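Write out this protein's structure.
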Amino acid sequence: MSQRPIIWATGIAVGASLCALIYGSKLASIVGLKDGPSAASVTVGGRSASAGAAQAQPAAARPSEPPTLTVAADYRGHYVVHPSIDNFRIQMLVDTGASLVALTAKDARALGIQLSSADYKMALNTANGTVRGARVNLREVRLGSILVRNVEAVVLPEGALSMSLLGTSFLGKLRGYEVQTGRMVLRG
């Protein structure tokens, strides 16, 4: 009888260790570490590299081969990416159901987008009901070695969105994208 609590405690410790190993990047973001492992890899010219290495070596891609980015799903099945928008990196959720790129008010401010309450003219139907948004245009969105210019977006008011969304105003300008068993492949 006295061995059962020891077995139970050992099982919990092993389970917690496995969760930390499997969900290390999510755990790193929860505790505030910014340099956790990346779930994205980039294929440039038929070779795989990390997203940072692909940005440092864009000349390695052959002109005939479009850049490809593979993003692994997180533990919830969501695809979270960190594109540079007008040379500023933000965290976004890839949302194939969103017609536009949608920015949180906080991310818009960080990008230098100045809006007044009169700018929020666009009515948007969301999962949480109707909300007003401000239409903006993003000069360029870079995701790994994929670059898309002139992307239509909308800024939502404070509290309307917890994370910015990478919608089809970006995805539709790609050569294609597909979801394959826990990973999304984007073709620039």
